[in-house]
Design goal:
This is DUF4259 domain-containing protein. This protein is an alpha+beta fold and 275 residues long. It contains ten helices and nine strands. The strands form two sheets. Strands 1, 2, 3, 4, 7, 8 and 9 form a seven-stranded mixed β-sheet that branches. A two-stranded antiparallel ribbon has the order 5-6.
């Protein structure tokens, strides 16, 4: 069994059905659309005598809780509950009798719930997705002014942040992938030539080559330190780091929250650049 306990959602299938259903509602899809998608995408599970009951239990329970239970989903779930097939499976595969009795209680409570009056339809809040407004090649200067920067001897120097790619961050935020460089002094470089001379901050190490890219986790405008960012210009053709490892899959690029940006870059600088 793809489960780790007797509770309804201590099961891979049940958890996946519930999470997908709620996620798609938050993306603006209708109850009918999401239900049809789940059924179409899970034909193998629905045709499996062991997994089918779990699928319908999860879908029925989730829809009921949100006041959206379709009659045919309820009928399917009750059909499997009354057949006792899932409980029989637990009788055969449960670790002990206590676990079996716990599952029995879970299914009894589910049947009682589905037979009781469904609550009014609940509002499902939609995702508020952020889209990075920076263009590829945009360069921003960020002044190091924290106590940590002073402690490390980098106060009043600048980090230059340049967007080179973008990616989608769950559940659908469009976020920038950047290079970060550090100035040698307290002046902001304003030309392509000056920027090209700056040292890139390494972010991690692959098996052979270093990584320099960072995905900035941007989920809303308010978490971006806009007041600390000075726009310098757009430079799409600045030379990139030499001998750099660029992952084929963007998910392998190190990610950083804006709240930890300054400390993370300072730490990376001393861990990798100054080793």
């Amino acid at each position: 069994m793809g489960s780790w306990g007797p509770k309804l959602y201590q099961d891979d299938v049940a958890e996946d059905v519930r999470d997908y259903y709620k996620d798609q509602l938050r993306r603006g899809k209708t109850n009918e659309e999401v239900t049809n998608e789940l059924i179409e995408d899970n034909e193998d599970i629905i045709s499996d005598e062991d997994e089918a009951p779990v699928f319908w239990f999860s879908l029925a329970d989730t829809q009921w809780s949100l006041g959206r239970l379709f009659p045919f989903v309820k009928e399917k779930a009750l059909e499997h509950l009354k057949s006792g097939e899932n409980l029989k499976r637990w009788e055969e595969e449960a670790i002990n009798k206590k676990e079996y009795k716990a599952r029995e209680k879970v299914l009894q409570e589910l049947e009682q719930k589905l037979m009781s009056p469904m609550p009014p339809e609940k509002k499902v809040s939609q995702y508020k997705l952020y889209k990075c407004e920076w263009n590829i090649g945009d360069v921003f200067a960020y002044k190091l002014e924290s106590d940590y920067a002073k402690e490390k001897g980098l106060d009043n120097k600048y980090l230059l942040i340049r967007k080179v790619y973008e990616d989608i961050w769950w559940p659908g935020h469009t976020v920038p992938i950047v290079y970060v460089q550090i100035t040698k002094d307290e002046k902001i470089p304003l030309s392509k030539e000056d920027i090209s001379q700056l040292e890139y901050i390494q972010t991690s190490r692959a098996e052979v080559l270093p990584k320099y890219l960072t995905t900035m986790i941007s989920t809303s405008k308010r978490i971006i330190p806009t007041k600390k960012l000075i726009f310098i210009g757009n430079y799409v053709d600045i030379n990139r780091p030499k001998d750099e490892y660029i992952p084929e899959n963007k998910i392998s690029i190190p990610a950083c929250n804006w709240s930890a940006f300054e400390k993370t870059m300072i730490d990376n600088y001393f861990i990798f650049n100054k080793e």
